[in-house]
Each structure stands twice: as structure tokens, then as C-alpha cells.
Automatic annotation (TrEMBL):
PANTHER family: DTDP-6-DEOXY-D-GLUCOSE-3,5 EPIMERASE, THYMIDINE DIPHOSPHO-4-KETO-RHAMNOSE 3,5-EPIMERASE. Pathway: Carbohydrate biosynthesis; dTDP-L-rhamnose biosynthesis. NCBIfam families: rmlC. Pfam families: dTDP_sugar_isom. One of its GO terms (cellular component) is cytosol. Keywords: Isomerase. It catalyses: dTDP-4-dehydro-6-deoxy-alpha-D-glucose = dTDP-4-dehydro-beta-L-rhamnose. Catalyzes the epimerization of the C3' and C5'positions of dTDP-6-deoxy-D-xylo-4-hexulose, forming dTDP-6-deoxy-L-lyxo-4-hexulose. Homodimer. This is dTDP-4-dehydrorhamnose 3,5-epimerase.
Amino acid sequence: MAEICKTSLPGVLEIFPKVFNDQRGYFFESFRADWLEKEHVFETWVQDNQSYSQKGTVRGLHFQREPFAQAKLVRVIQGKVLDVVVDLRKDSETFGSYYSTIMDTEKHNLLYVPRGFAHGFSVLEDAIFVYKCSNYYDKESEGGILWNDPSLQIDWMVNDPIISEKDTKWQSLEEFKVTSEGGL
Ligand SMILES: Cc1cn([C@H]2C[C@H](O)[C@@H](COP(=O)(O)OP(=O)(O)O[C@H]3O[C@@H](C)C(=O)[C@@H](O)[C@H]3O)O2)c(=O)[nH]c1=O
């Protein structure tokens, strides 16, 4: 059975599947609804996404606003990333804190990211990143926080990252707090 671990941010779960290795290769269960149900999380996943990124890329930090807010269940199927989530939930005791973890194809770990978090990752080895979303993509609902926000002090473990133009223009956490009246 997979190991379901609470993290430093209430609601964020890290999942370590049981991997069966033998002379052919490996087998593991990559998704089970009951992993989350045991933690009283009930999601209907409606969209799966896949991206490929070169080593040195940073994508993030992204969220969608209500009514298109998304929970995500993320993992890598090739390569290695540093996955990062930032708590943007209004009135959360951990508002403005982040959790990061290395995701790779040895541990095959997954991260459950609830609504109300910004999410991003940096690419430590060329990576295929896949994730389930609990709501559909909606361009108008997209939001973000600057990946290198000075108050977050995230160590992304990459220098001079490859980044989209869009991701250079998000708000700082301070600006976000003001414009969102304290959070998501
Ligand atoms: C996310 C997304 C993008 N797109 C389109 C929009 C755009 O033209 C192209 C690339 O989009 P982006 O640059 O936003 O892709 P990307 O930077 O990979 O965006 C993703 O980043 C990670 C960190 C997340 O957490 C995701 O939720 C998502 O925001 O794909 C969709 O059609 N559907 C989607 O669900």
C-alpha cells in the first residue's frame, strides 16, 4: 500500500506508491481514489495534463481563481523536478509558506495540491510532468505569483532559468495580498 504523508502545509499530501521491482522492470499503482479518500479528500478529476521541460526550466507559480479553482495531483514520468506549492488560502495559518519536494522516477512520488495554492516546479533533469486537475483550464481565471518573489526565498536549485514570458510578469506575494484582499 502507498504511504500517504502529511506535509508542513495542512491539506497538502505527498504520496509514495509501493513499487514492485522484478527482473522485467517495475510495477506500481499510479493513482487510487482511496489514497485521498482516507484523508477525507474527495475530488472528481476532469482534466489530465502533460508537459515536457528541459533541464533548467521553471514553470509557475500558478493557480486558477474560483469558480475554476483547481486541485491537482502531480508527478513526473521522466526526469526529476523540484515541485513547489505556496499556501495562498485566506486566513490560513501557513499563508505565504511553501512546501517543496523532489519528484523523480525512482520514488515515483506524487503531490496532492488542494485549491488555494500556487504551484510550480523547476526541472533538475529533462522532465515529463503529468497531473490531474479537478477543474477545467480557464484562461480568464489564471493567476500567479512571481517564481522569485523576494519574500518567499525559494531555492529552485537552478541558475538563470528558462521561463515563459508570462511567468516573468506575475505579481509579488505582497501585491497579491492587496489585490486579492488577503488570499484565495
Ligand atoms: C495549463 C494549460 C495550458 N494550456 C495552453 C495555454 C498555453 O497556450 C499553453 C502553455 O500554457 P502555460 O504556459 O500556462 O503552461 P504551464 O506553464 O506548463 O502551466 C502549468 O504550470 C504548472 C506549474 C501548473 O501548476 C499548471 O496548473 C499550469 O498552470 O497551453 C491549455 O490549453 N490548457 C491548460 O490546462
